[in-house]
Design a protein that fits this description.
This protein is an alpha/beta fold. It folds into 3 domains: 97 residues; 85 residues, Penicillin-binding protein 1b fold, CATH 3.30.2060; 69 residues, no CATH class. It is built from 6 helices and 19 strands. A 6-stranded mixed beta sheet has the order 6-7-8-9-10-11, covered by helices on one side. A 5-stranded mixed beta sheet has the order 15-18-19-16-17, with helices on one face. Strand 10 and strand 11 form a beta hairpin.
């Protein structure tokens, strides 16, 4: 989701909280984010807002245990409370490595086996325990660490044709999956790239201010949206109720996005106005 055309990468302390949320939402599409927000209440609001958007993973930094909440090939937003925490969080996020094995991809088999061996996996005839892998013809079995069951990769040439979870006792397949994660394997993707945003004290060098609350006064809200659109503003309305999306779109004649935003704002430099039903 792109809300701002400018390359914004600073969290000004006096800017509206929801502006910070949307900035983090935009930046996390191409980076892992570590964001320092000194005010605890504001951190909690930002996390709640971020969590309302599908596919967004936001966590509070809690030392090494934070790693348990970071998984897959999605980007994450890690929220910290002070500069020292921010440094530790960025180091942790940068160090996490993983490899996604998915149907349809070309698999470089020997490099994969070399990586597995380097991080302590054992090559065996038949996989029975965590940290083991095996190859028989066009079939590769891997039992990832931390998983309860192993995975069977069926190849067509070097292409992953199917992936199944199987039973170590019977060696029989149980169910199909589309992909699985191997922790500790370096990926060629940029998914572990980390962008650190420190909080900047003071007033932003651009004109942005909160929207007044309309307290259910639809007529007043319609009037304000109409005025802003006449002045060339892009208007976005946020709702948590997907069933109302089309109704709001028809009523306000503007963009409607599913997500929780507690406080609207007007960003004059960007000609952007944000409204919320909250």
């Amino acid at each position: 989701m792109r809300f701002f055309s400018k390359n914004l990468d600073r969290l000004y302390s006096t800017a509206p909280t929801s502006f910070k949320t949307l900035l983090l939402l935009q930046l996390q599409e191409s980076n892992n984010i570590v964001a320092c927000i000194s005010d605890e209440e504001e951190r909690e609001i930002i996390k709640e807002e971020l969590d309302s958007f599908p596919g967004v993973i936001a966590v509070f930094f809690n030392g090494i245990s934070t790693a348990h909440f970071i998984h897959g090939d999605k980007h994450h937003v890690v929220l910290t409370g002070d500069p020292e925490e921010t440094v530790h969080a960025a180091e942790l996020l940068s160090s996490l490595t993983f490899r996604i094995i998915r149907i349809g991809e070309k698999l470089s088999i020997e490099p994969l086996f070399e990586h597995l061996t380097e991080i302590g996996y054992r090559r065996v005839g038949f996989v029975e325990e965590e940290g083991e892998f095996a190859k028989r013809g066009g079939i590769i079995d891997i039992f990832p660490r931390g998983e309860k069951e192993p995975y069977r990769i069926e190849l067509f040439g070097n292409t992953v044709n199917s992936i199944r979870i199987f039973d170590v006792e019977t060696q029989r397949s149980k169910r199909r999956v589309k992909e699985f994660i191997l922790e500790g394997i370096v990926s060629n993707s940029t998914k572990n790239r980390v962008l650190v945003l420190q909080e900047v004290k003071g007033i932003p060098p651009f004109k942005i201010y909160p929207n007044p609350g309309y307290r259910g006064n639809i007529s007043l809200l319609l009037e304000e949206i109409y005025r802003l659109k006449e002045e060339g503003f892009r208007v976005i309305f946020f709702t948590t109720d997907e069933r109302k999306t089309e109704n709001y779109r028809s009523l306000f004649n503007c963009e409607v996005i599913k997500g929780k935003i507690f406080e609207g704002f007007v960003f004059e430099d960007e000609k952007l106005a944000v409204f919320s039903e909250a």
